[in-house]
Amino acid sequence: MWCQRLAWLLRGQRGSTGRRWPWLSQDLGPVPAAPVRCCPTAPAAPRCAWQLHQDHLELRYGSTLMRLDFVWLRDHCRSASCYNAKTNQRSLDTASVDLAIRPQAVRVDETTLFLTWPDGHVTRYGLEWLVRNSYEGQKQQVMHPRILWNAEIYRQAQVPSVDCRSFLETDEGLKEFLQNFLLYGIAFVENVTPTKEDTEILAERISIIRETIYGRMWYFTSDFSRGDTAYTKLALDRHTDTTYFQEPCGIQVFHCLKHEGTGGRTLLVDGFHAAEQVLRRAPEHFELLAKVPLKHEYVESVGGCHNHMIGVGPVLNVYPWNNELYLIRYNNYDRAVINTVPHDVVRRWYHAHRALTAELRRPDNELWVKLKPGKVGPGAASSGIGPGWDLGAESCGFGTGRKAGCSVGVLVSGHCQIQQFSSFWVL
């Protein structure tokens, strides 16, 4: 889905020079021995060769060697009787497929695989479709292309802000915002009227607003009106937000409405860039941070607010088929007691956590943004938007923070769904 968005965004443009997220190599290993019961090659398709095994079809197309289970091949049939192309939903009853099914005949031409099943049903697959959707093809693909950055990379990129009117009223303005957000994980809209109502209109243009224990859109200042360090004047180290939700919020909208006094700077750090450095220098630390489940909790009893929420998950969340990072849970304030792993794992986890923390705290990774009415980043009045999943954020970016003793001012914030993020452009 994200790749479709980026394909739309970058259509007709040259490919990005930014680095894509690497994945850990996993050798396919030798083909398991099994009796061959069918013609092993398809001479009509010079780029394609196939071999029929006891329970799967081995198919080589171009440089990709695929092993396709027979039940999988029957279950994913895209014929009119098996798949509703109008609703993009499966019609076939998977439970009715014989788990010992084998095709009676197999044929491959230059573009298509044909399988005839025992009941006479014929399944057709485009070879390119199989490459995209097979396990072997998926493990070589990146779900969410992005540009990883430190402060210097981001400054040199000169990522433009988007004017509010253009963002709200034109496809071009929204397109520019989407490109900034999807590639860098942070984006800015300028000239937003400093009210909660106008900020909410902007948020609705991005995605569905997610109502949480804080409300739909809420005011935010250093008055300790909620049981959270963010509502004080204490320093905030870099962190991601809502780690105590089982599904952390995907996007956070953050708008400074009023500011008096000194300070007010927000720290942005690309957590994915830091994680990549850990993977490169100490892959065992990356693996541990991606496997050890931790509890994060939010406990408050302030005024009329009484909440105790617990979310469970590792610091680094990766897709298991290609080890691509998609979510960071990094919040030392909200991390609960570590009681989910035995003692011999705990010490190793602390070493891994220290390695990631050291990367996040490197001065060259710090991008400081002034939060005040009329200017957040370049330009006049603006709103900053940042993701909690792809980058992990509070305020308007990846891991964020602030200095102690600052006059925070009055801000408005809100969360948006990452799943429905500008789904208009997918359709």
TrEMBL record:
<keyword id="KW-0408">Iron</keyword>
<comment type="similarity">
    <text>Belongs to the gamma-BBH/TMLD family.</text>
</comment>
<dbReference type="InterPro" id="IPR038492">
    <property type="entry name" value="GBBH-like_N_sf"/>
</dbReference>
<protein>
    <recommendedName>
        <fullName>Trimethyllysine dioxygenase, mitochondrial</fullName>
        <ecNumber>1.14.11.8</ecNumber>
    </recommendedName>
</protein>
<keyword id="KW-0496">Mitochondrion</keyword>
<dbReference type="InterPro" id="IPR010376">
    <property type="entry name" value="GBBH-like_N"/>
</dbReference>
<comment type="function">
    <text>Converts trimethyllysine (TML) into hydroxytrimethyllysine (HTML).</text>
</comment>
<dbReference type="GO" id="GO:0005759">
    <property type="term" value="C:mitochondrial matrix"/>
</dbReference>
<comment type="pathway">
    <text>Amine and polyamine biosynthesis; carnitine biosynthesis.</text>
</comment>
<dbReference type="Pfam" id="PF06155">
    <property type="entry name" value="GBBH-like_N"/>
</dbReference>
<keyword id="KW-0479">Metal-binding</keyword>
<comment type="subunit">
    <text>Homodimer.</text>
</comment>
<dbReference type="InterPro" id="IPR012776">
    <property type="entry name" value="Trimethyllysine_dOase"/>
</dbReference>
<keyword id="KW-0560">Oxidoreductase</keyword>
<keyword id="KW-0809">Transit peptide</keyword>
<dbReference type="InterPro" id="IPR042098">
    <property type="entry name" value="TauD-like_sf"/>
</dbReference>
<dbReference type="GO" id="GO:0005506">
    <property type="term" value="F:iron ion binding"/>
</dbReference>
<dbReference type="InterPro" id="IPR050411">
    <property type="entry name" value="AlphaKG_dependent_hydroxylases"/>
</dbReference>
<dbReference type="Pfam" id="PF02668">
    <property type="entry name" value="TauD"/>
</dbReference>
<feature type="domain" description="Gamma-butyrobetaine hydroxylase-like N-terminal">
    <location>
        <begin position="55"/>
        <end position="130"/>
    </location>
</feature>
<dbReference type="InterPro" id="IPR003819">
    <property type="entry name" value="TauD/TfdA-like"/>
</dbReference>
<feature type="domain" description="TauD/TfdA-like">
    <location>
        <begin position="158"/>
        <end position="376"/>
    </location>
</feature>
<keyword id="KW-0124">Carnitine biosynthesis</keyword>
<dbReference type="GO" id="GO:0050353">
    <property type="term" value="F:trimethyllysine dioxygenase activity"/>
</dbReference>
<dbReference type="GO" id="GO:0045329">
    <property type="term" value="P:carnitine biosynthetic process"/>
</dbReference>
<keyword id="KW-0223">Dioxygenase</keyword>
